[in-house]
Hints:
Helices cover 70% and strands 0% of the residues. By secondary structure, it is mainly alpha-helical. The chain has a domain at 12-83 and 137-175 and 193-305. Helix 1 packs parallel to helix 12 (268-286). The longest helix is centred in the last third of the chain and has 35 residues, at 296-330. The two termini are 36 Å apart.
Amino acid sequence: MKPAVEKGRMEGLDSLRGIAAGGVCLYHCCFASEMMPQHGYLSHLAQYGDKGVQVFFILSGFVIPYSLSRRPYGHGAAGRFLLRRFARIQPAYWVAVLFTVLIYGVVLGRPEFFDRGDIAVNAFYLVPFTNSPWLLNISWTLGVEAQFYILVALGYPVLTSESPIVRRLAFAFFVLLCFLIRILPEGINPWYVLPTWIPFFATGLLLFLFRFDKISLNEFLITATCMVALLLFEYTKLFTLVAVGTGCLVLALPRGRKLPGHFLGKISYSLYLVHLPVIIVLASWLEPLNLVKEHPDFSVVVLFSASVIASLPFYYFAEKPSHAWSRRLRG
């Protein structure tokens, strides 16, 4: 028997976001550059932390249609959703880009970060289609997410259609978009565009359809089996394990109850945005002291703690105002 449709915020997802953001931060604390502490015990644990990115993609595949389902989908619904989503995430991202430019340009003395063209291109995730670099390295993941928001907002009616034929064809079409990476124009890095990561978003979408009683158990199991086969053939066993493990956790989440790591999940977006420039500049200060070389695990703890601490004011002064703006637009 499938779970009943749930109302309100799914608090347990915040814990998964916290784990994912913490994993990515820990990974960068060890491997963001050659000066990071790469040879300690914690680095062996951190080497898999970058897979938190794929966890985020799966969670978005679940949360975005869930958000759309909470309001009637009528004329203009896609545009209103995208406007609210823009208000929710974009201002904090812009602040993070400017923060990164100041950290690298002023503190680390790298004037190339002040290029106005590069800043404009980064502000709207256009790097894959230009010769500009990513100023904030994690920005590529937000660009992929933005592409998914647009696609799912437009395709939501058919992806969740009550007609089994329409819904199944739409889902199959969505999944098959992953093969577009084989015909991308030269010069576009497939890592930075949605088709590469479609199976992870599709995993989240499938979890949403099942958890909210839009498909039967048999349809879920058959489709999930096909998704696992696709991941095994087109990706790696580790990526497949990430997808299956995250899916099981999402299905097992208790309703209406906060789990350990909830607060880290609440600030996970801020942590994700600011941790890289923080650990880079702090590591550059620690390196001459030989602290990184002599005490790598302690250095990781210092870098990680500094990232969390830095994310707190960012959350309260940059991210929370964006939340408030987004909520006003809902009215």
